[in-house]
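RETRY 2/3 - previous attempt timed out on the joint model. Re-submitting the same 445-residue input unchanged.
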Amino acid sequence: MGNDELILLNYWPSMFGARVRIALEEKGLDYEYREEDLLNKSPLLLQMNPVHKKIPVLIHNGKPVCESNIIVQYIDEVWYDKAPLLPSDPYQKAQARFWADYIDKKLYDSGRKITFHKNKEEAEEGKKEVLEIFKVLEGALEEKPYFGGENFGYVDISLIGFYMWFHAYETCANFSIEAECPKLMAWVKRCLERKTVSKSLGDPKTVYEIVLKFRKKLGLD
Amino acid sequence: MAEELKLFRTWSSPYSLRVVHALKIKGLEYETIFEDLSSKSASLLQYNPVNKKVPVLVHNGKAICESLVILEYIDETWKQCPLLPRDPYEKAKARFWAKFGDEKLSSSIWNVLISQGKEQEEAIAAAVQNLKLIEEQLQEKKFFGGEKIGYLDIAFGWTANLISILEEIIDLKLVDEEKLPLLSAWMQNFSDDPVIKQCWPPRDKLVVKFQAMRESNLKTVLSQ
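RETRY 2/3 succeeded.
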């Protein structure tokens, strides 16, 4: 574990890439960060993720690991001796995996309905879905500081990257996540107090500007 | 303490079948509760309130949901006949391909089922491309797990059964022995494994079910 070479191929607004950045920071690992232009993907990205051609990709000593939650688990399993991200108990681990899977299957697509809506109805539909997902997640959080309990972990890492997109969701569909889901926002603020999180997340206002640029490009506005 | 294991499943769900395969490979005793998804039991809704789906594994009263999550839980709880590789990199690869199977591969196979004519030709080309990618993961091994059936074999298990059923319904070959020899051999080896063999749902019932799905989806497309 002495001379590990770690390269992260990422696109900073990605809520999925954020997961990997946070995991690497939590473990205190040195890595080279490379920003990808998604409209002009590097030969390295195409070589390391030929199946999906997507970020994030973690390249560890020349070998690629793809799919953000899979990368986070990989990081946790290789560097198992510090800052555990997943619980050690199989049942608690299964719960963590379940929630990360839930976030993966639901939040991105519903969020996209808001940001890249073709009409007001779609934005409304997206907003309804996102709020429903947040309510379910608030239920899972209960009164705990983090999803896993006392310690920041896998599910928190899985979700917090989406915070970069909250301002975009709110502005595109005209609602306030703080007003609708105060418990979730309290959890967000708690996570942002961690340096590993705050240095891994980009500015939500800039994310919104990027959304506007893309909307114009796609002829949606 | 006596272990209490209950599996909520349907007769046909390929995801439920994964859990059956894992439990049988591990030699575990369990109770089966068959669900009718048009009329879900109160127990199922209690154990899986979020997704309300099968499979659900209940172990000593605690529910685990999502088939791939259940597989990992079973592997971590009962150490005999390990399913996942031990090496973190190999594990990451197995998880990657299981996800690919559930997302890209299964939707491409579904597209073949619900299309016809030129659209179906294109759907078949896309599906075969994905199947080729899967085959590359086999290399020269008997199973994705090596000498023995493992996590990825179980994750892909639905292909060993449902693809031939699809081929029968559409009267076209998807997994050609010449074009996909290794995958073809794997499907045979997996299906014929004595543990797996006893678990397949009745084929004729599956043919009827998928034929009906094809017809209702084609009708929907035509009426649009």
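The mean pLDDT of chain B is 95. Closing ticket.
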